[in-house]
Each structure stands twice: as structure tokens, then as C-alpha cells.
Design brief:
The chain is α/β, with parallel strands linked by helices and 306 residues long. The strands form 3 sheets. Strands 3, 4, 5, 6, 7, 13 and 14 form a 7-stranded mixed β-sheet that branches. Helix 4 links the parallel strand 8 and strand 9.
């Protein structure tokens, strides 16, 4: 038996529970991984609350989680490139990584590089590939300026760094509490709230060329008012505004591959990309972890450690 997160109905964090389940067995082309860390994400909270029922309906009882990192415990038939005992980073599409053990497709795994902590590795997939796709969608170039909303959040904290690696000047919208951290990354911090447009314009006298929205709440409208072309605006959350204004919505699905995960993990291992970890919770503390996440005021990622 193994422990895993389950819920039987849509609702608040109180529907989440830790349950003993049958130890999963890998099928052909699959691998059983003992999970050492698994990130949690806003999309999982939205699914659990039923907000995405039309797009991503839950089948009850439902598991939870996509991100994970761990140690290979068993190989399915036909798996040859991986060995028992290998340390890996991976993802699943079966909502099952918030558990002590998870079965994943071998093709969804990449080795954990030296210098990448379990917490950073386990939190990398969803936020990392979302940030990667969003930044790629707006094509920041050297000499240009790009704005990232929610710049200290799980996705935004990685997006500002990936945009910096392109050579662009990056403005990060965040609370005052995160300004010093953004400056350490050579990102220009700007406070959100009333007057944000004027503050952005003052920070970018040469104009703004691209905008990555990781927060919603009207930032697509703000980007358009800044004079940015719709083709260089990407939102990973405000799909209604994207449809209305024909801006991009590239996110996790546009970069969900082991190849991108490997590229990101190597950047982390080389010290070129930081995965800030806000807090680490045990499986038994999963409700507290999601309460923390849903306040939307953490810097970086929240992680479960089985």
C-alpha cells in the first residue's frame, strides 16, 4: 500500500484527504517512481473547486498533481534507458503525483542534474514549462522591454528570469515585499495597484514591447493600453480577455515535454535559473498547503514532501 491525496467531490480544501491506496504497477513503457517532492499549482485548485469542469472534468475519486521528482523504484516492460535507483524529474497527465509513489511514462522523465534540490526538481514542470512557453510566445529580444505580472509567483518568478536570459529588460509587477528579490535578479520591480500604468511608463521611457500575464485581473487590458501589439501579449490565466482581444494563451500545454523539462533543469543546475521555494508541506498538511497557495501571495513554489 501507499499513501496518496484523494477527493470525492468538488469543493474547498476540506474535500482533500490522504488515503492508503494500492501500490501502482507500471505498465509497458512506464516507470514506478518513489516521490521525493511534488509541486502544487493553481490549476489543480481550480479543478478541485470545479471551476474548470467544462474543460477538465474530474472523475471521482480523483487524485491530484502533475509535477514530481523522485527515485525510480520499478520498470515496466520495454523500458531500457532508465534504471532502478535513477533520480528523475517528471510529470504525469493522470492527476496522481501527490502521493508516495507515482506511475509515469518513461518518455515523461529526465535525469535530475547535480545541484538541483528535490524541492526545485519536484516543483519545476508546470510552472517551468508554462513560463517557458509564455516567454517564447512574446519573443523578447535584446534591447526590448517586457513586463511580467505576478512576477514573484510560481510562474512569474521563472518567467522574469527566462525573459532576462533573452537579453531583454524586464519589469516585474509585484508587491513591495518582493522588490528586493527582483532587484537581485536584475529585474525592475514595479508595484501593482492604482497608478500601475504610469509607474510602468516611468520605468520604461522607451516603451514596452511585450507582456506576460500570469495573474489575470485586467492585465491584458493594461498591456493593450501600453500600446503593445496583441501578438506580443500572452496570458496564462485570463482566457476571456484573450478571446476578446485575440492575444496569445501559450502555457504549459505548449511546452509540456521532457525535452523542455531537461532544458529547464539544466539551467537550474548551472545556477542560471532559480526555482524559489516558498514553503514545504507534508502530504498530511495538503489542506494547509492549498490554503497557502490560494492566498496568491507566496514567492515562488509550494511543495509537498511525502
Amino acid at each position: 500500500m501507499a499513501r496518496a491525496i484523494r477527493f470525492d467531490e468538488y469543493g474547498d480544501v476540506d474535500v482533500l484527504r490522504v488515503e492508503d491506496v494500492q501500490l501502482p504497477a507500471p505498465g509497458p513503457g512506464q516507470v514506478l517512481v518513489e516521490v521525493r517532492a511534488a509541486g502544487i499549482n493553481p490549476g489543480e485548485a481550480a479543478i478541485r473547486r470545479g471551476f474548470l469542469h467544462e474543460r477538465f472534468p474530474a472523475t471521482f475519486p480523483s487524485g491530484q498533481g502533475s509535477d514530481f521528482a523522485g527515485v525510480v523504484a520499478e520498470l515496466g516492460e520495454g523500458v531500457e534507458e532508465i534504471r532502478v535507483g535513477d533520480e528523475v524529474i517528471g510529470f504525469v497527465d493522470t492527476r496522481s503525483s501527490h502521493a508516495e509513489f507515482v506511475v509515469a511514462e518513461a518518455s515523461n522523465l529526465t535525469p535530475r542534474p547535480d545541484g538541483v534540490s528535490w524541492e526545485a526538481a519536484g516543483a519545476l514542470f508546470v510552472a517551468g514549462t508554462t513560463a517557458y512557453a509564455a516567454v517564447r510566445a512574446v519573443c523578447p529580444r535584446e534591447g526590448e522591454t517586457v513586463v511580467v505580472s505576478g512576477a514573484a509567483g510560481g510562474v512569474g518568478s521563472l518567467a522574469v528570469q527566462l525573459a532576462k536570459l533573452s537579453g531583454a529588460t524586464v519589469i516585474g509587477l509585484a508587491s513591495e515585499a518582493n522588490h528586493a528579490w527582483l532587484r537581485e535578479l536584475d529585474v525592475i520591480p514595479v508595484s501593482y495597484g492604482d497608478g500601475v500604468r504610469e509607474r510602468i511608463e516611468a520605468a520604461a521611457p522607451g516603451g514596452v514591447h511585450a507582456f506576460v500575464d500570469t495573474f489575470g485581473s485586467g492585465y491584458v487590458d493594461l498591456a493593450l493600453h501600453l500600446g503593445i501589439h496583441p501578438g506580443r501579449i500572452d496570458t496564462v490565466i485570463d482566457f476571456a480577455a484573450a478571446q476578446k482581444y485575440n492575444v496569445k494563451t501559450d502555457g504549459n500545454a505548449a511546452a509540456a515535454s521532457a525535452e523542455v523539462l531537461r532544458e529547464l533543469s539544466l539551467l537550474v543546475g548551472k545556477g542560471l535559473l532559480e526555482v524559489p521555494i516558498a514553503r514545504v508541506y507534508s502530504l498530511d498538511e495538503v489542506r494547509d498547503a492549498y490554503r497557502d497557495l490560494e492566498r496568491r501571495h507566496t514567492r515562488g513554489k509550494i511543495v509537498l514532501r511525502p
